[in-house]
């Protein structure tokens, strides 16, 4: 693989990411429209040849101040351990990180 091939693949990645962003925004708008329509129709699920949809509810939980305090203490302890190097590395996971070019105005 030469440098030109790498640049070509990066250009392709840039185009794919731009399309993903556009599709993500379009999907979000479609979800909002479906949600509103289902509420207007008074239904909470629908099945079709194109897929199934349902409204889902999840409870928002409040575990109280004691649990919140323990969570904060754990987060602080983990950060301190990271800062001090007080941990063991079990292994590594390798992945490709793509950063889109910065648009200059």
> Mean pLDDT, as a whole number?
91
Please state the structural category.
mainly alpha
Q: How much beta, percentage-wise?
A: 5-15%
Main sheet specs: 2 strands, antiparallel
Termini distance?
Answer: 33 Å
Helix content: 55-70%
Oligomer: single chain
- Count of individual helical segments: 2
Task: Give me the strand/helix succession.
Answer: HEEH
Computed Rg: 23 Å
Q: What would you note in describing this structure?
A:
This protein is mainly alpha-helical and 105 residues long. 56% of the residues lie in helices and 8% in strands. The protein has two helices and two strands; from the N terminus they run H-E-E-H. Strands 1-2 form a two-stranded antiparallel ribbon. A hairpin with a 2-residue loop joins strand 1 (45-48) and strand 2 (51-54). The protein is flat, with a radius of gyration of 23 Å. 0% of the residues are buried.
Q: Short description, anyone?
A:
The chain is mainly alpha-helical. It contains two helices and two strands. It is flat.
Indicate the topology.
Elements: H1 3-41, E1 45-48, E2 51-54, H2 65-84
Antiparallel strand pairs: 1-2
List keywords for this structure.
mainly alpha
